[in-house]
Design brief:
Blueprint (H helix, E strand, L loop, with lengths): L1 E2 L3 E9 L2 E9 L3 E2 L17 H14 L7 H7 L2
Antiparallel strand pairs: 1-4, 2-3
Length: 78
């Protein structure tokens, strides 16, 4: 699918973004397609809370949490 080109021209602008004179922006044809062509949806595109809970527990079994005081993190960078 494609769309026709766009042309934007601003002769003079004075506002919060600053002062602009003689600005022109032009594009040719813009082509795009559906996102489904690039990557198909997985088996659970919108997982439910119970599914996420099981996934979280699998992560916690695989990677044990490491707790460290925030003062050690802050002092380490100074």
């Amino acid at each position: 699918m494609s769309k026709k080109g766009v042309k934007i021209k601003i002769d003079e602008y004075l506002g919060p973004l600053g002062k602009i004179k003689g600005f022109e922006f032009t594009t040719g044809k813009v082509q795009y397609s559906d996102e489904t062509e690039f990557e198909p949806l997985g088996p659970t595109p919108r997982p439910t809370i119970p599914t996420l809970r099981n996934w979280f527990f699998k992560l916690m079994d695989r990677y044990k949490p490491f707790y460290m005081p925030i003062c050690d993190i802050v002092n380490g960078f100074s």
